[in-house]
């Protein structure tokens, strides 16, 4: 498959979290996933230890089982969000930002209902557990897997595939580990990435972001 005609800047600014536009009816070729992973492992990794592993899930029953774990985690997440003070949250957000959050919630609800239908679910993992480690030790582990996952998502976008970074299932990480035979005591899961072709073509726009001058600090906070 030929790559999309995107400049590096366009690739970086249009690799979106795709939920409602994931095409659940179209299979994703194994070779495309392989290509994306070959590029993913060119990402930097702490001490060049290359402690990453990637579990690619295409089996229907395993995807259904992971979907159940994900929905269980999503229910827990929604309960946490609902427990927060709505007034406190809305008082510091613009109307446009609130509307955007409503759309994100709607698409997140949709993904929770349908994530098991994605033809490919990717679970990136890294050797070791972060439980009880110091911040610097945790940073070293996360920094050895997350760049690779983002590289995978960029490579997928360049090939006309949509992805979405999710971590909701980690509320019940051990249950997901049992589904896939991951040695939970020795391996940490970093995310669950649905992968599919996209509905309505491959065009995506840069997302609206808060003004740079509200988050940029030169030399001092």
Q: Helix fraction? A: 40-55%
Radius of gyration: 18 Å
What best-fitting shape do the alpha-carbon axes yield? Answer: globular
Low-confidence stretches: none
Structural class: alpha+beta
In the CATH hierarchy, what is the superfamily? NADH Oxidase
Number of domains: 1
Provide the CATH topology: NADH Oxidase
Q: List SSEs in N-to-C order.
A: HEHEHHHEHHEHEE
Termini, distance in Å?
46 Å
Specify the number of helices. Answer: 8
Strand content: 5-15%
Care to describe what's here?
The protein is of the alpha+beta class and 221 residues long. It has a single domain, classed as NADH Oxidase (3-Layer(aba) Sandwich). The chain has eight helices and six strands; from the N terminus they run αβαβαααβααβαββ. It has helices at 8-14, 30-40, 60-83, 86-90, 95-114, 135-142, 146-158, 173-180; strands at 22-23, 52-57, 120-127, 161-163, 187-189, 193-198. Strands 1, 2, 3, 4, 5 and 6 form a six-stranded antiparallel beta sheet that branches. Helix 2 (30-40) packs across helix 7 and helix 3 (60-83) packs antiparallel against helix 8. It is globular, with a radius of gyration of 18 Å. The N and C termini lie far apart (46 Å). The model has no long low-confidence stretch (mean pLDDT 93).
Features:
221 residues, single chain, NADH Oxidase, 6-stranded antiparallel beta sheet, 43% helix, alpha+beta, 6 strands, 8 helices
């Amino acid at each position: 498959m030929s790559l999309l005609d995107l400049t590096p800047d366009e690739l970086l600014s249009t690799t979106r979290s795709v939920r409602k536009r994931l095409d659940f009816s179209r299979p994703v070729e194994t070779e495309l996933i392989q290509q994306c992973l070959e590029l993913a492992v060119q990402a930097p990794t702490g001490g060049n230890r290359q402690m990453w592993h990637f579990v690619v899930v295409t089996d229907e029953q395993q995807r259904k089982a992971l979907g159940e774990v994900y929905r269980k985690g999503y229910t827990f997440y929604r309960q946490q969000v609902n427990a927060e003070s709505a007034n406190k949250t809305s008082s510091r957000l613009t109307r446009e930002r609130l509307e955007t959050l409503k759309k994100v919630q709607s698409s997140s609800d949709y993904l929770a209902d349908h994530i098991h239908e994605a033809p490919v679910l990717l679970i990136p993992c890294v050797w070791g557990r972060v439980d009880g480690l110091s911040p610097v030790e945790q940073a070293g582990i996360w920094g050895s897997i997350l760049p690779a996952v983002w590289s995978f998502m960029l490579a997928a976008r360049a090939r006309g595939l949509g992805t979405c970074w999710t971590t909701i299932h980690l509320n019940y990480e051990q249950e997901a580990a049992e589904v896939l035979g991951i040695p939970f005591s020795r391996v940490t899961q970093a995310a669950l990435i649905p992968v599919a072709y996209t509905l309505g073509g491959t065009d995506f726009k840069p997302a609206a972001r808060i003004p740079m001058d509200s988050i940029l600090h030169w030399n001092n906070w």
